[in-house]
Design brief:
Blueprint: E1 3-7, E2 10-12, E3 18-25, E4 33-39, E5 46-51, E6 58-60, E7 68-73, E8 78-83, E9 92-99, E10 114-115, E11 121-125
Length: 127
Amino acid sequence: QVHFVESGGGPVQPGGSLRLSCVASGFPLADYAVGWFRQAPGKEREPVSCIGSKDGSTYYADSVKGRFTISRDNAKNTAYLQMNSLKSEDTAVYYCGANLMRTTIGAEIRAYEYAYWGQGTQVSVSS
């Protein structure tokens, strides 16, 4: 089976930080661009941040620019999402996906290009 295993979520107060990790299982992460997506209750899954396989290209949703940083360690088959200055509206289940159609990140993120989803990790921002 090929999928991601996400971790690092939990409860946090507004203004706090979390570092999410997703480990690729059953496939070499280095061959794929990776995207972090999130889904809040009653809402559709949305892209948060994506990173190219080798060229360093990145995408950030406007809502997280300047607060979140995506990175990857291909040797560890792991991608990360550093989340700072968290807000209540960041509350969601966060998922990793691998882009099966392209290795670089452009301005537009197409969720249908991503697969190998894990079970997600819950982030809850509340005072």
